[in-house]
Design brief:
eight-stranded parallel beta sheet, alpha/beta, TIM Barrel, four-stranded mixed beta sheet, 12% strand, globular
């Protein structure tokens, strides 16, 4: 009888250990958690910044406005001051805000991977145009290549917390701009079915690349009915002027029904005031100018209000991607955009670190958590970027994905219910075995409430030493290499790939 009891206990212990080791059946830290708890600006601050932005648009206006846009803006209610600047009255700006798309879907080619932008939902994704890649073999930077772009796209396709993918690096081995735009778009189509984004160097590149998207979508005109690519464009150049080539791209993207992120990327003390409040006022005015432009062309066209405050080190003039100033500025930008009811895009996790080290971790965690807590709908640059956006890293993609899970768990907060308060569980433990290990209440919480990292080390020092005393960088490198060795998606059919290669100069 004793043997049977002991065997039963051992079997029960093994079952409990196996249950603890098993992965949760639900994701306790899923993308799309609600943000907005962090509010660096008071209600009075929000009004003051907004009123200054309206005044800048109405009294200073925008310079270097292309003729076609000048005509459309004046037709919508703007004014030409006769001195080379187009003034945007307060009423026109408020009309553009009122009629803007407040929420819209970023389609994935796989519908299950689509996300809705707007409201208070937070999603991490990518951006950037790194010209260097952190080589996994040497640990040093080298020029980014088209092969790197394909590999980054394949890698992120497996990462839960990259909710949409924008090319993170520039293929520096493709010198022709049309070839670059075409092959960038092809890399996105071949290697992922998530929502994606790209950039067009010139407006003339849009129509032919849309033909590629039509092949993927199933026929001529099919892409426009369900666009699964958005465009990243910077039509306003700080301080307070339009860029003609980018404006032309906006017109073409709208003509082809491509959702757009109109990105303002002012730099403190260089192209915008060094004071944080003044910076926010000018940057808000410039992003509102992009919104008014879209409104004048096609009211309500899907636009991510991408107000990305960037900071420079005023001692050297170098861009600073990490630090307290950029953390609070992007959080404030998200707060402002959400206060206006506009789908917000901000930037975070743009560490200045070159290596995967303590600086890397602290700068990424600080800036991305602040942007998420403030409710940034789309947080760009948040995965894989290093070296003040000059670099991209395979290991960083893997590490950042785990960091985002921790951020989502923090956003999820604490659910206070009668069951979770656990009066009966506390009484049972106190009057029973004196602990909560193995209890039903504990198992339920383990499945539902806790995220278990796969890269962060939680072993005792002696166990860590016995296993080779490895750091997070090396563990992430192994993970990235394993994915790139095994994950070769075939998201284009043989017929689609052949049709694209017949129509375009595909270089890989």
């Amino acid at each position: 009888m004793q043997q049977k009891t002991s065997g039963t206990k051992r079997a029960g212990r093994r079952a409990r250990q196996a249950k603890r080791a098993a992965k949760p059946t639900v994701n306790p830290a899923a993308p799309g958690q609600r943000g907005g708890a962090y509010r660096p600006l008071t209600e009075m601050d929000l009004h003051a910044i907004y009123q200054t932005a309206l005044r800048l648009l109405a009294e200073l206006g925008l310079g270097e406005v292309p003729a076609r846009l000048t005509k459309d803006l004046i037709g919508a209610g703007a004014e030409d001051n006769g001195a080379g600047r187009i003034l945007i009255p307060r009423a026109l700006t408020e009309e553009a805000i009122a009629k803007a798309a407040k929420t819209f879907v970023l389609h994935g080619r796989d519908p299950d991977r689509s996300i809705e932008v707007g409201g208070d939902r937070v999603y991490f994704g990518t951006g950037g145009a790194a010209v260097q890649t952190l080589d996994m073999d040497t640990g040093l930077y080298r020029p980014s290549t088209l092969r790197d772009l394909h590999d980054f796209t394949r890698l992120q396709d497996t990462l839960t917390n990259v909710s949409w993918f924008t090319r993170c690096c520039i293929a520096t081995d493709v010198p022709d701009n049309l070839d670059l735009d075409v092959n960038t778009a092809y890399a996105l189509m071949r290697n992922t079915t998530k929502p994606v984004a790209t950039a067009f160097t010139l407006a003339t590149h849009v129509a032919p690349i849309v033909e590629m998207f039509d092949i993927v979508a199933g026929g001529a005109g099919a892409f426009a009915h369900r666009p699964f690519v958005k465009a990243h464009i910077s039509p306003v150049i700080s301080p307070m002027r339009f860029g003609e080539d980018a404006v032309d791209v906006v017109y073409e993207c709208i003509r082809h029904n491509i959702p757009i992120s109109c990105i303002t990327a002012a730099q403190s003390g260089a192209t915008a005031p060094a004071t944080l409040a003044g910076f926010l006022a000018q940057s808000l005015a410039e992003t509102l100018a992009s919104l008014v432009m879209v409104h004048a062309i096609r009211p309500g066209h899907p636009m991510v209000f991408s107000n990305w405050p960037l900071v420079i080190d005023l001692r050297t003039g170098a861009f600073a991607g990490g630090g307290g100033e950029i953390a609070v500025l992007n959080a404030a930008s998200a707060q402002l955009s959400n206060w206006l009811g506009l789908p917000s895009g901000v930037a975070a996790s743009m560490t200045d670190a070159k290596a995967i080290d303590a600086q890397y971790g602290s700068e990424k965690a600080m800036t991305s958590l602040a942007a998420a807590l403030a409710g940034g709908n789309l947080i760009y640059e948040s995965s894989g970027m290093t070296a003040s956006l000059l670099g991209a890293s395979f290991e960083a993609f893997v590490l950042d994905d785990e960091m985002h899970s921790a951020t989502y768990r923090a956003l999820r907060g604490i659910e206070v219910t009668e069951e979770n308060l656990g009066f009966d569980a506390i009484r049972e433990a106190v009057l029973g075995e004196g602990h909560f290990l193995g209890g039903r209440h504990t198992y339920a919480a383990m499945e539902r409430d806790y995220f278990y990292p796969s890269l962060a080390d939680r072993e005792a020092p002696v166990t860590w030493t016995e296993k080779g005393a490895r750091d997070a960088w090396s563990r992430a490198r192994d993970t990235a290499r394993a994915v790139l060795a095994d994950h070769h998606p075939e998201y284009l059919s043989t017929q689609q790939d052949a049709a694209i290669r017949d129509a375009f100069r595909i270089l890989l």
